[in-house]
Amino acid sequence: xxxxxxxxxxxxxxxxxxxxxxxxxxxxxxxxxxxxxxxxxxxxxxxxxxxxxxxxxxxxxxxxxxxxxxxxxxxxxxxxxxxxxxxxxxxxxxxxxxxxxxxxxxxxxxxxxxxxxxxxxxxxxxxxxxxxxxxxxxxxxxxxxxxxxxxxxxxxxxxxxxxxxxxxxxxxxxxxxxxxxxxxxxx
Length: 187
Prior knowledge:
This protein is α+β, with helices and mostly antiparallel strands.
């Protein structure tokens, strides 16, 4: 029998994992950071009107959620994640060290994580909130609108006592544009 599986969630996996797990705890992964850096062609956009989704990009550190899946669910969970995360192959499946907060202190585990492939055509790179805004506003895919994805992710980031200033700025701009308060004088 194989060992249990650890998974790192930093975006929608924090609030919509879609798999059964034995344990959910705060986690940190070093060497990567959360960023809206992927043009979404399926879940939050289309090829004609891409939205934006999060990816783990190189550098820094990312706080998120660690999930422990029982050994008897390991293979089914990996298959589910591949189907969900690898639709357009914009992510690379990696096994990386992760620190989880459990039993009173940090513990190092080896986790499955999906990091952005910087050579993929859907990789948007580092963009300002203003550059991301048109994609966030137009993004509507099979799972829903891009703005909803960002709002839900931020809600769960805040629930964990964390913050993401870049996502906050993107969401504020998108909400202002939707309400009409983002218009310039004379428009």
